[in-house]
Prior knowledge:
This protein is mainly alpha-helical. The protein has one domain (2-171). The chain has helices spanning 2-26, 32-69, 74-104, 115-135, 142-171. α1 (2-26) packs across α3 and α2 packs antiparallel against α3 (74-104).
Amino acid sequence: MLFRLAVTPWLLLRTAPVVIAVLFRLAPAHARPAMRARVRPAVRLALRYFGAFTAVPVLFAGVILLSRAMPDGEVNVLITFALLLPVVWLLFFVVFASSTVVRGAFETAEIHAALRALLTGVLVRELAAINLVTAGMPPGPPLVRICAVIGGPASVSAVAWWEIGRLRRRYGVTFGGRAA
């Protein structure tokens, strides 16, 4: 669980631009400017999150280097503790924001209504491949192992495509048509 929580935002950052580019390519020319305007808030949110994510180790290393450069003593411990408080606050911010950001997929539904379902289908396959490479096949008989590896991503993809079909039927959302 923790591994997925750490890897998924980075996968989302790499995968979302590719999926968005494909979606832009499929959209008609008259719909692209409106979609492009809706990309900016999602990009800003992603940059804020990854800025905080990157700042945690950088600030921590800076505090450690600064504390080593200062002379030993009681004041040094207090200064180091005071400098570590914002780093700890930022760490908690990143940890608690990760599940919300990943669940919301950086507000990509604002770009196109079907984008969140598309990203879910792609991300679940990427996570299954990473899990297969890092952890190997799950335990059990060969048929159960194969079903476990293929079944999870297949069921999530089926639900994502069902959602895309539902969006098309109920709201008229298509990849080459209007972006809702």
